[in-house]
């Protein structure tokens, strides 16, 4: 065997594999592997994965709880923008117009922009991806003539693969130009699984419409380079969750069935009545009654054997706990979030778990939700506001980057022990390791809004002659000066 062949097979002297997973040894002989590309891996399986994921979320409490847990932590009350424009007056005008537009952002008029964030995030977790279409409206209808329509990924046909006369190619419903750039999305007019129930089905419900890529936001978590479509986040836990649900139901049914049998009467003469079992109720079902304190006399040869249903065993809860830990790991959340079980946690363990989850959640917020969803919406909104003239943005085409500069602030985390966290934050601020603005942003607030509220509260308290213990201006220990209203110090006092 040549050296090239040995290298390809992972073999060297003596035919020994260089890795345990290479070759056809006793432990690896049944390991049948495949290595499809990023596109081929989902080309023929994503529809089935999505259908099973949706089925579990509909009927499985743990799957639904896991999806809700991630959406609540990643989005919460919304990932809010903070304009970075230097002009204070213009920045406040941008924020005021944005808040007005958020109320009318939903094309279905069911929620606001931050509700659409949660809806798109949930669709991404459950179905692997979400589509958000930018819908431009009449100028006189709303603060900015732009609305958003969230679509499920079923609107994008995964089996549409063709070459167009223009030289562009369509892969999984997405059209690419010769340079590999996304130029359009071919979407069904209505949801393909709704059929005649869809409001836009009609005669052309299953026809596809070519939508320019500039008007479609494709939200999904890329796991491999070159990936075109998203993978449902429950993909690695589908089989385990389904079988675990069946196992738990089987245990419940077994206990319920065993508990229905109170006892069994045995006798040598079947024609004789014992304990009145020959009697029957109104429905005709025979029974043998027992009451508390009953002293029942049995004839020779007669016996009563009571049912002793088998218990689920001491390992039942531990078995479920280990299985749920595997499911939580597959979904990227903690075991406590999935089950709500806090019986075996303490401050240190739950804090360590939350820190790891929040680090992962922050990475997805920044690289997926903000980059793919929030940033394009902000840019389209700024361009539309400039075109309509509702914002004074002189030379917008030349200063586009300056006007569009923005910082997205997710909802702040609630800590297990706020006092320890705030004490550590105050120490970092006083040491110059953290700014107040960054500390306030960590809790999901705008530092400028907080400063204005503090100034307004202080002015109102001073005008009314109110002194609060929470006001650091009156804190002698913090400022090193006498507090307001206190008598001057005695110079003779040591």
Q: How would you describe what is shown here?
A:
By secondary structure, this protein is an alpha+beta fold. Strand 5 and strand 6 (174-176) form a beta hairpin. The model has no long low-confidence stretch (mean pLDDT 83). It contains 15 helices and 12 strands. Strands 4-5-6-7-8 form a 5-stranded antiparallel sheet, with no helix packed on it. Strands 3-2-9 form a 3-stranded antiparallel sheet. Strands 1-12 form a two-stranded antiparallel ribbon. Helix 4 packs across helix 6 (113-127).
Features:
single chain, 494 residues, alpha+beta, 3 domains, five-stranded antiparallel beta sheet, three-stranded antiparallel beta sheet, globular
Strand content: 5-15%
How many helical elements?
15
Mean pLDDT: 83
Global geometry: globular
- Class from helix and strand fractions: alpha+beta
Poorly predicted runs are none
Number of domains as seen in the coordinates: 3
């Amino acid at each position: 065997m040549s050296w090239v062949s040995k290298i390809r097979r992972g073999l060297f002297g003596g035919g020994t594999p260089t890795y345990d997973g290479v070759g056809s040894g006793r432990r690896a002989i049944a390991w049948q592997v495949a290595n499809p590309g990023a596109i081929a891996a989902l080309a023929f399986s994503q529809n089935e994965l999505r259908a099973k994921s949706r089925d579990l979320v509909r009927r499985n409490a743990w799957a639904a709880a896991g999806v809700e847990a991630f959406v609540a932590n990643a989005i919460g009350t919304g990932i809010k923008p903070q304009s970075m424009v230097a002009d204070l007056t213009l920045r406040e005008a941008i924020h005021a117009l944005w808040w007005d537009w958020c109320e009318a952002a939903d094309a279905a008029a069911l929620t606001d922009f931050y509700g659409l964030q949660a809806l798109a995030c949930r669709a991404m977790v459950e179905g692997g991806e979400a589509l958000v279409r930018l819908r431009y409206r009449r100028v006189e209808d709303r603060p900015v003539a732009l609305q958003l329509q969230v679509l499920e990924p079923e609107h994008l046909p995964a089996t549409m693969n063709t070459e167009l006369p223009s030289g562009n190619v369509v892969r999984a419903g997405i059209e690419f130009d010769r340079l590999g750039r996304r130029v359009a999305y071919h979407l069904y007019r209505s949801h393909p699984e709704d059929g005649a129930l869809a409001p836009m089905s009609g005669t052309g419900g299953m026809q596809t419409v070519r939508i320019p890529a500039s008007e479609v936001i494709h939200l999904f978590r890329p796991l491999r380079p070159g990936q075109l479509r998203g993978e449902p986040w429950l993909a690695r836990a589908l089989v385990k969750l389904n079988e675990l649900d069946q196992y738990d139901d089987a245990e419940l049914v077994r206990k319920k069935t065993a508990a229905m049998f109170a006892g069994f009467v045995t006798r040598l003469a079947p024609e004789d009545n014992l304990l009145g079992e020959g009697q029957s109720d109104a429905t005709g079902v025979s029974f043998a009654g027992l009451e508390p304190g009953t002293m029942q006399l049995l004839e020779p040869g007669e016996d009563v054997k009571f049912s002793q249903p088998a218990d689920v065993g001491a390992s039942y809860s531990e078995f479920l706990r280990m299985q749920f830990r595997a499911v939580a790991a597959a979904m990227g959340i903690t075991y406590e979030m999935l089950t709500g079980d806090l019986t075996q946690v303490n401050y240190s363990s739950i804090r360590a778990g939350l820190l790891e989850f929040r680090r992962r959640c922050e990475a997805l917020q920044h690289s997926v939700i903000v980059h793919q969803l929030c940033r394009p919406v902000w840019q389209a909104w700024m361009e539309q506001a400039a075109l309509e003239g509702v914002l004074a943005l002189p030379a917008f085409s030349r200063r586009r980057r300056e006007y569009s500069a923005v910082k997205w602030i997710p909802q702040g985390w609630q800590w297990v022990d706020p006092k320890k966290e705030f004490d550590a934050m105050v120490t970092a601020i006083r040491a110059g390791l953290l700014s107040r603005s960054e500390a306030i942003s960590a809790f999901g607030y705008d530092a400028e809004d907080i400063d204005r509220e503090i100034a307004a509260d202080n002015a109102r308290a001073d005008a009314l002659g109110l002194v609060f213990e929470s006001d650091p201006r009156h804190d002698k220990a913090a400022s090193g000066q006498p507090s307001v209203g206190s008598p001057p110090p005695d110079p003779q006092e040591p």
